Every structure is written in structure tokens, then in C-alpha cells.
């Protein structure tokens, strides 16, 4: 199955800008479906970014993060071609990860 | 003993310090660079903080101390959200040695929306898209040098749809 | 001009129209000849109405709908466009477009230029079938011609396919043609009539909101101008949390005026799309779009 | 530019409701006159009222201009009838008929009224 993670990591100067978009329903557990039943909470709790074995960013998310979540940050100390490892885990224990090269 | 200086709340930091010293003594010969990955492994999802209803309790649970407003924290959020399901919010700061940035939506069912850990070498800014139940104050808290600085803005959210 | 004055205007028009209708019967058929269907003139007048109403906007700005009407919303849109929510639909559409049917053919075999960069020519008037053929109808016709079951006009697959085809046409100006065929002229006129006809218990027509009140707010929504409104189709609406085709948009708009929607791709909807696309000729394709 | 246009829509709704109310009033007034004393509605009354409403709604369908609220009232009428409350069932069926008739009037008058507002 194609990965749920889309990432763009571009190096300009010594700073790498990272944008990630993840395919996930991010159900908060407060919403009802058309038949009135509560849709149970199903959301990504933790998303981590590692480069050259070092954590460069760690996201702790709650039920208020939008569907198909997006995050953008930047970090220093990487060079073109380095590998960025992105992985997430949700409240049901599901997870996915992707490794992408810095452009 | 190098302080890993991960931006956790006081209680969690003491726990971590303890763990770090044990790790160093016990596994002295481990190559140094795997250490941070190990340290990162116990960045547990702050379940209690996310469970808190109101903002004050959430901040207490996450950081264990109060924040002071500061104009060095720049919170960018729309005046009127085009749709409460997707509200683009970003935070940046000129404070230095920032270790964590968190976002709170006061009137959401649970105030804490998202919390980001900023390791050394990562710029202290983040952009994301949050859900807001209704018009509410949005507060960004930045932990820098162990102290908390905050900025707050009101974002208006209205019932979507135009008729029906 | 706020909605109240529209309604006062509408009710006066209501009464005036009644009188006009009566007068028409008295004069008899000659009056009808005066109503020659002139799409080119209609398109010119339509575009002039909006450039007069929004002098600060260039024609191509109208394809961004509400985001050209309001600075605060435009900023939110630009932030969404950095990594747009329709990214997944776009990729799914591309994959579907090239996945062969059971008989080995693909959608590309059904469309000129392999379906790439042609969205701006749809809908067109098919003189063989004597009706308007929209991109969505053509996709299902392609499926049926290759022994596949047609797919829903309002669900994600159709939105993903049309998103990919729109993406390959981004920037190309709408180029809708009306052949010299009385049936095509009539289809254009029927679409125009549907656009201006009040319906539903709220007694609104498409024009009540998207012409007379373009740029105003109705509750939280900023009303997009009708000019260029189909250029961004299909759209990912935060409101739906998913993609939506032109068909889905027409159906939901009907429901919001408390009118019972028609079957997707029924004559009225296809003629409406024909009219709305033709009067937006020259404006660039901006689909797939992200909307509130 | 006022933030909400609710009051204008409410005027709209009131005006449309007023026209329906007068129609409904007229319809129910005529129904009242017929039976000398107000006997409880029977299933037959309901069936007749429901059929009339459905016929009117079908005609609106032919004119491609049914209202969603007509169907809601028809469903309410059927639901009331199923639970044996024929007074309520007839009232809902009358309301449905009034709404259907209003939608027919709308479609008929709009046949040419639209030209007045069209840009051409």
C-alpha cells in the first residue's frame, strides 16, 4: 500500500525546510456519523523526524489536529542527500514510516 | 554528565536525568551517537496533558509551571477561520535555546492541541493545521531556557454552511 | 448590495414579472423572436458585470473564488496551497487514469491527446448524441465502452480522476465551443434559465447568491462569484473533508436552498455546466481547488 | 458588509412561511367547514389528504422543482398515521400539500420571471 506520508525536505543554505502531509482520518471521537453513532477517536499521537540517527523534530498530537495532518519546520546540520526518517503511531497502535532524501 | 536538555516538564526532566545517568554508567561502551535515539525513545506521549479539559490544567500537566506573555513569541492565526476543521496556525520566536512549543485552543473539548519538541539545531518555529470547535482564544507557549513564554490570539469560528 | 435589498428587488421583480408575463401573452409570439439566443453577447455581458462589480480584480483572479474576495481568507488558502489537501486525490487520480481496464485499455485511449491537458474543452456539445457531454459523463462513457461499470458522479474516484485531468490543464484558458446547431443553442439557453430560476423553499436561484451577492457573506461562507466558479473544479472542501465533483456541488447547492436535487448529470445540470463554463471562456483552469 | 445575513434570510423565511400559512389556512379552513362538527380525523381522511399532497408533489417533480421540506412533511404525516394519530397525520399531509402547491407556483411563475434578473 502506498505510504500515507508525503514529505518535502529541501536544503537552502545550511537550513533544511521540511513539510509533511499525512493521510489519516484524525477522528476526534466527538463527531457523530449520519446515523447518529459516535465515530470513535482515531488520531496520530506521535510523529517523529530523524536525520542521521538524530531526532530533529517530535510532534505530540491530540484530537484537535486536522484530518490529513500537515506540519512544517526547519532544522540545521544536514546536507543534500542525507536521509530523513519520518514515522508516526496512532492511538490504535497503527503506524507507518518513510525514509526520504533531502533535496 | 551531558544534559540532554530535552524540553520536558520539571517532573519528567528529573526522571530523564536519572535514566540518562544510568544509561551512561551501565552502557559506557555504547557508541555515542545512538544515545540520543535511546533518549528519544522514552519521549512518551503526554497522555495526561491531552486529557485535561481546560488550558491551565493542561499547561500544568505538560510543563508544571506558569507562562508569562512575551512579544518575542509570534503567533500567526486567521482572524476568522474559513472553516473550523482546517485552521492554519503557525508559531515562531526570537527567543533562544527553545526546547518546546505547544498550542492550546482554550474552548476546545481538550485544550491542548499539539506539542512539539525542538531538539538543538532545529529552528524554533512550526506551522500546522488545527481543528477548532468554536470561536476561542488560541495560545502558543514556548519553553526557552526552562522558562515559559506565551502569546494569545482570538480566532473566530462560525457554523459552516449557508442554508439548508 | 446586501441580501435584504436583493429580496426586496426579487419580490418587486416577482410582481413585475407577473405583469410582464401577462403583457407578453397580450403581445403574442412576436416578442419571443426578440429573445434570440446569443451566447457570445451573454458571455461578454457576464464578464463585464463582474469586472465592473470588482474593478480591482483581473479576469484570471475570479478563478480563485472566495479567496479573491477576502484578504484574511486568501492568506489561509495560500497556507493550504503549500501542501494542499487534494494531494492524495491527485495521486490516486493519476494512478487510476493509467490503470488498464479488464480489456487492457485505459482512460487515455478514450480521450484526445491521451486525456492530458484537455479539461478546458469540456463540456462540449456532442452533435451525434445531440446533448452536452461533460468531463464526468465522458469518463463514465469511456468505462462503459470498455465493459466497466460506471462509477458514482459524486464520490471520490470520479473526483480523483477529474482532479488529475484538471491538473494537467492548469493555466489553460477555458475554451468551450457552441457549434452552429439549434440544439446546442437551446442547451446553452436551458442552462442559463436554470442558473437564474429561483428554486427551493428559500426561493434562491444560483444568481441570487453567486451574482447579486458575490463577495458578500451568507452566514460564514463568502459567496464566490459565478464567473470562474467552475474553473477550480473538482474541489476539496474543508466542509466535506473530502473531494467534490461539479455534480456534488450542484446537488449540495440545491439542498441548501431546500430544493430537491436532480439526478447527477441530468440534462439541467449538464446544460448548467455548459452555460457556466462558456461564460467563463478565457479564464484559466485552476483545478483541483481547495475551498472552505 | 454585515458578518451574518441571518436576519435577511429570516425575513425571506417568514415571507415564504406567511404565504404557506395563508395557503395552509385556506386549505384547513375549507376542510373544517365540510364536517359540521369537528370529528376526529379517520384513516380515510388521512389517506385522502396524503394522496392529494403526493399528487401535488408529483406535479412539482414534473416541473423539476420539488422542495425538501415537502418530503419531510409527507414522512411526518405517514409516521403519525402509522402510530394512529390521524389528526396529526392529516395536519401534516395538509402542510405537505400546501408546500407542494407553493413549489408549483414558484416553478410556474419562474418560467419567465427569471429573464428579469438574467444578465444578457
Instruction: Return the CATH class of chain C.
Output: Mainly Alpha
The low-pLDDT segments of chain C are 22-34
Order of strands, widest sheet of chain C:
6-5-7
Number of distinct beta strands of chain C: 7
Class computed from helices, strands and strand pairing of chain D: mainly alpha
CATH topology (fold) name of chain C: Cytochrome Bc1 Complex, Chain D, domain 2
Query: What distance separates the N and C termini of chain C?
Result: 23 Å
Any idea what the CATH superfamily of chain C is called? Cytochrome c-like domain
Count of runs of 4 or more consecutive helical residues of chain D:
4
Q: How far do the termini of chain D sit from each other?
A: 27 Å
Question: Could you characterize what this model shows?
Answer:
The complex is a heterotetramer of chains A (103), B (164), C (292) and D (120). With 103 residues, chain A is mainly β. Chain A has strands at residues 5-12, 15-22, 44-51, 54-61, 70-76, 83-90, 95-101. Chain A has a single domain, classed as Immunoglobulin-like, CATH 2.60.40.10. Chain A is built from no helices and 7 strands. Chain A is elongated, with a radius of gyration of 15 Å. Chain C has helices at 3-27, 30-34, 39-53, 71-82, 87-98, 135-145, 156-167, 182-196, 206-210, 246-256, 267-278; strands spanning 124-126, 131-133, 217-218, 221-222, 235-237, 242-244, 289-291. Chain D is an all-alpha fold. Chain D has one domain. The longest helix of chain D has 28 residues, at 6-33. Chain D is elongated and about 55 Å long. The chains are: A mainly beta (103), B alpha+beta (164), C mainly alpha (292), D mainly alpha (120). Chains A and B meet through strand 3, strand 4 and strand 5 of A and helix 2, strand 5 and strand 6 of B. Strand 5 (70-76) of chain A pairs antiparallel with strand 6 (125-130) of chain B, so a sheet runs across the interface.
Summarize the structure.
By secondary structure, chain A is mainly β.
Present the secondary structure layout.
The complex is a heterotetramer of chains A (103), B (164), C (292) and D (120).
Chain A (H helix, E strand, L loop, with lengths): L4 E8 L2 E8 L21 E8 L2 E8 L8 E7 L6 E8 L4 E7 L2
Antiparallel strand pairs in A: 1-2, 2-5, 3-4, 3-6, 6-7
Chain B lengths: L9 H17 L7 H8 L5 H5 L3 H9 L3 E3 L3 E4 L10 E7 L4 E8 L6 E6 L7 E6 L5 E9 L2 E9 L9
Parallel strand pairs in B: 1-8
Antiparallel strand pairs in B: 2-3, 3-6, 4-5, 4-7, 7-8
Chain C lengths: L2 H25 L2 H5 L4 H15 L17 H12 L4 H12 L25 E3 L4 E3 L1 H11 L10 H12 L14 H15 L9 H5 L6 E2 L2 E2 L12 E3 L4 E3 L1 H11 L10 H12 L10 E3 L1
Parallel strand pairs in C: 5-7
Antiparallel strand pairs in C: 1-2, 3-4, 5-6
Amino acid at each position: 500500500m502506498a505510504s500515507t506520508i508525503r514529505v518535502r525536505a529541501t536544503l537552502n543554505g545550511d537550513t533544511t525546510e521540511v513539510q509533511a502531509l499525512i493521510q489519516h482520518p484524525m477522528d476526534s471521537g466527538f463527531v457523530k456519523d449520519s446515523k447518529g453513532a459516535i465515530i470513535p477517536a482515531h488520531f496520530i499521537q506521535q510523529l517523529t523526524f530523524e536525520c542521521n540517527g538524530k531526532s530533529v523534530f517530535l510532534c505530540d498530537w491530540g484530537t484537535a489536529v486536522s484530518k490529513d495532518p500537515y506540519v512544517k519546520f526547519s532544522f540545521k546540520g544536514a546536507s543534500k542527500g542525507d536521509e530523513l526518517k519520518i514515522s508516526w503511531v496512532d492511538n490504535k497502535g497503527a503506524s507507518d514510516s518513510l525514509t526520504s532524501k533531502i533535496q | 554528565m551531558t544534559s540532554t536538555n530535552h524540553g520536558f516538564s520539571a517532573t519528567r526532566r528529573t526522571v530523564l536525568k536519572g535514566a540518562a545517568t544510568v544509561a551512561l554508567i551501565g552502557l559506557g561502551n555504547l557508541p555515542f551517537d545512538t544515545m540520543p535515539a535511546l533518549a528519544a525513545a522514552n519521549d512518551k506521549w503526554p497522555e495526561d496533558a491531552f486529557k485535561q479539559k481546560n488550558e491551565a490544567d493542561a499547561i500544568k500537566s505538560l510543563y508544571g509551571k506558569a507562562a508569562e506573555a512575551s512579544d518575542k513569541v509570534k503567533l500567526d492565526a486567521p482572524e476568522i477561520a474559513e472553516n473550523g476543521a482546517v485552521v492554519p496556525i503557525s508559531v515562531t520566536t526570537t527567543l533562544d535555546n527553545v526546547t518546546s512549543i505547544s498550542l492550546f485552543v482554550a474552548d476546545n473539548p481538550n485544550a491542548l492541541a499539539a506539542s512539539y519538541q525542538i531538539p538543538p539545531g532545529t529552528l524554533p518555529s512550526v506551522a500546522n493545521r488545527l481543528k477548532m470547535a468554536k470561536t476561542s482564544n488560541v495560545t502558543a507557549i514556548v519553553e526557552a531556557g526552562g522558562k515559559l513564554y506565551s502569546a494569545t490570539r482570538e480566532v473566530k469560528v462560525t457554523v459552516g454552511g449557508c442554508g439548508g | 448590495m446586501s441580501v435584504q435589498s436583493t429580496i426586496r428587488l426579487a419580490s418587486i421583480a416577482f410582481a413585475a414579472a407577473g405583469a410582464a408575463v401577462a403583457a407578453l401573452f397580450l403581445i403574442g409570439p412576436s416578442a419571443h423572436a426578440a429573445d434570440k439566443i446569443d451566447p457570445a453577447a451573454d458571455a461578454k455581458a457576464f464578464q463585464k458585470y463582474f469586472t465592473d462589480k470588482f474593478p480591482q480584480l483581473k479576469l484570471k483572479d475570479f478563478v480563485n473564488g472566495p479567496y479573491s474576495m477576502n484578504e484574511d481568507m486568501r492568506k489561509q488558502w495560500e497556507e493550504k496551497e503549500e501542501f494542499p489537501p487534494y494531494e492524495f486525490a491527485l495521486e490516486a487520480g493519476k494512478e487510476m487514469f493509467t490503470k488498464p481496464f479488464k480489456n487492457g485499455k485505459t482512460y487515455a485511449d478514450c480521450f484526445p491527446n491521451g486525456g492530458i491537458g484537455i479539461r478546458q474543452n469540456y463540456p462540449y456539445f456532442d452533435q451525434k448524441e445531440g446533448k452536452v457531454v461533460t468531463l464526468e459523463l465522458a469518463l463514465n462513457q469511456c468505462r462503459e465502452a470498455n465493459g466497466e461499470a460506471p462509477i458514482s458522479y459524486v464520490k471520490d474516484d470520479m473526483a480523483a480522476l477529474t482532479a488529475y485531468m484538471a491538473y494537467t490543464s492548469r493555466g489553460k484558458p477555458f475554451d468551450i465551443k457552441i457549434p452552429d446547431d439549434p440544439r446546442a443553442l437551446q442547451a446553452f439557453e436551458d442552462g442559463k434559465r436554470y442558473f437564474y430560476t429561483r428554486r427551493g423553499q428559500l426561493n434562491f436561484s444560483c444568481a441570487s447568491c453567486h451574482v447579486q451577492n458575490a463577495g458578500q457573506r451568507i452566514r460564514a461562507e463568502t459567496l464566490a462569484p459565478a464567473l470562474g466558479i467552475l474553473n477550480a473544479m473538482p474541489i476539496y472542501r474543508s466542509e466535506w473533508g473530502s473531494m467534490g465533483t461539479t455534480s456534488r456541488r450542484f446537488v449540495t447547492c440545491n439542498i441548501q436552498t431546500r430544493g430537491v436535487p436532480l439526478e447527477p448529470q441530468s440534462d439541467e445540470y449538464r446544460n448548467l455546466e455548459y452555460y457556466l463554463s462558456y461564460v467563463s471562456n478565457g479564464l484559466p483552469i485552476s483545478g483541483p481547488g481547495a475551498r472552505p | 458588509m454585515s458578518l451574518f445575513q441571518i436576519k435577511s434570510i429570516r425575513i425571506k423565511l417568514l415571507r415564504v412561511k406567511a404565504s404557506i400559512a395563508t395557503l395552509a389556512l385556506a386549505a384547513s379552513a375549507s376542510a373544517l367547514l365540510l364536517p359540521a362538527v369537528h370529528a376526529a380525523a379517520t384513516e380515510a381522511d388521512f389517506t385522502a389528504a396524503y394522496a392529494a399532497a403526493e399528487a401535488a408533489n408529483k406535479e412539482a417533480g414534473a416541473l423539476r422543482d420539488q422542495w425538501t421540506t415537502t418530503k419531510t412533511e409527507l414522512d411526518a404525516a405517514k409516521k403519525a398515521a402509522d402510530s394512529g394519530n390521524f389528526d396529526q397525520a392529516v395536519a401534516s399531509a395538509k402542510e405537505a400539500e400546501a408546500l407542494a402547491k407553493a413549489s408549483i407556483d414558484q416553478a410556474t411563475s419562474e418560467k419567465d420571471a427569471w429573464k428579469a434578473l438574467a444578465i444578457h
